Sequence to fold (227 residues):
Amino acid sequence: EPEVTQTPSHQVTQMGQEVILRCVPISNHLYFYWYRQILGQKVEFLVSFYNNEISEKSEIFDDQFSVERPDGSNFTLKIRSTKLEDSAMYFCASTRDRGRTDTQYFGPGTRLTVL
Amino acid sequence: GDSVTQMEGPVTLSEEAFLTINCTYTATGYPSLFWYVQYPGEGLQLLLKATKADDKGSNKGFEATYRKETTSFHLEKGSVQVSDSAVYFCALSDPRAQKLVFGQGTRLTINP
Fold:
């Protein structure tokens, strides 16, 4: 069964460093998402992406964040200068269509720890 | 804005007990409703969904009914197993927005 994959599973970085989190969505999906979950808190939407551009972003997704689909398979989230409060589990998701009934399929997540 | 509220966890039950995890929502549009499950060390997996009022989603013995009048989508299972131990997330998908809105998650532990 096709699945969303994410690498690395755990990333440790120093405050102020740049990190890139990688995702490989399901191959025939067209819409891509990033969510994050700070420990003990809700899963929060960050950004959605379609046709090589951002469709929607939350207030969390400020200028320190960017997303890219550098080739036909990868979807990346870059944090330019990490802060302590960026420590969280980051989930990638994808869906074939964008209707309200469509299911988003999630990857296993990348745990980001900022020291 | 839209929001989802789940019952506080953690929830601990014995095997074969009846499970209910409450979920209520607030939405300005007509959302679809989802339950996702996260097993230890894994990602979020869709457990079930319902897309319109009075629909019942079901999977692996779990059920939830979309109740528009009470804005609820409670998760139930008649007889839980140790393998059901996981974190359960209720979520909605707003028809206008391109995102899921999640509840805070409920950690369920089933003891043999």
The two ends of chain B are 41 Å apart (CA to CA).
